[in-house]
Amino acid sequence: SFIYYINNVSQLKEVDDEKSNKAFRTGERLQPYMVFVETDSKVTYFYIIINKFYYKVESALKALDICFKSFFVFNLHYTPQCDQIWYFIQTFIYEIITKFDKNCSPNVNTLINDLNKC
């Protein structure tokens, strides 16, 4: 997944270590992801984690924006577990099409087409 919720900022390293270890075990490259710190049923802090660096930002929208753009800056591929949502964000929100894009599922294409009719 690309969004994690934790209860305390002190858990950032633990989450990052778990993701790093899993990526190492499966032979995958660790991709940028977001961590939201939730206290008292309210998200209070937003982080983007890229290569063991923790970047605190002011909102979930800013976290999503930076996380998405980091894939292009670092020339990364979306992980198979999350690629459809990233393709949706890429094509519908940012309106970016590249020669490296894989096929979206028919459901994602239908959703994009339906939303474009609104």
Question: Uncertain regions: pLDDT < 50 for 5+ in a row?
Answer: none
State mean pLDDT (0 to 100 scale).
Answer: 93
Number of strands: 4
**Order of helical and strand elements:** EHEEEHHH
Describe the protein's architecture and organization.
With 118 residues, the protein is of the alpha+beta class. It folds into 2 domains: 1-74, no CATH class; 77-118, no CATH class. It has 4 helices and 4 strands; from the N terminus they run E-H-E-E-E-H-H-H. The chain has helices spanning 12-26, 60-73, 83-93, 106-116; strands at residues 3-6, 33-39, 42-50, 53-57. A 4-stranded mixed beta sheet has the order 1-2-3-4, with helices on both faces. Helix 3 runs parallel beside helix 4. The longest helix has 15 residues, at 12-26. The two termini are 29 Å apart. The relative contact order is 0.13.
Top keywords for this entry?
2 domains; 118 residues; alpha+beta; 43% helix; single chain
Secondary structure blueprint with pairings:
Elements: E1 3-6, H1 12-26, E2 33-39, E3 42-50, E4 53-57, H2 60-73, H3 83-93, H4 106-116
Parallel strand pairs: 1-2
Antiparallel strand pairs: 2-3, 3-4
Helix pairs in contact: 3-4
Task: Summarize it.
This protein is of the alpha+beta class and about 120 residues long.
